[in-house]
Amino acid sequence: MSDTSTVTDASERNRFEIHHGQDLAGFAEYRDHGRQRIFYHTEIDEQYSGKGLGSKLIRGALTDTVAAGMRIVAVCSFVVKFLDGHDDFADSVDEVTPEILELLD
To answer: For the segment 50-64, what is each residue's pLDDT rounded down to a tens digit?
Structure first.
């Protein structure tokens, strides 16, 4: 599959989206809390799984978050796993606290 995917911040829906061509291939939902962006859910459409689009989506979302001067809070297991393998974001990550989890309830 040639890479015709693009990542955009659909801020009106509080999520980053990845499109493959014209198709929505997946999204990463977030909630902003002060200077923190809490990533709590990621989905990649089944037909696009295993093609690296999830990683591209999360890299784009995290890069945009850091560029906006915000801190990353990873509640979503996909984002946690991505961060475990990518130390380049380590200085921009905050811990998940009980207060963060309460915000998401």
So the answer is: 999 999 999 999 999
> How do the domains of the chain map onto residue ranges?
5-104
Determine the residue type at 39: F
Token representation of residue 98: 């009980």
**Strands in the chain per DSSP E:** 5-10, 15-20, 23-33, 36-44, 71-74, 93-94
Q: Is 33 helix (H, G, I), strand (E, B) or coil?
A: strand
Query: Which CATH number does 5-104 carry?
Result: 3.40.630.30
Phi-psi region of 11 (alpha: psi -120 to 50; beta: other; left: phi over 0): alpha
pLDDT tens digits along 40-96: 999 999 999 999 999 999 999 999 999 999 999 999 999 999 999 999 999 999 999
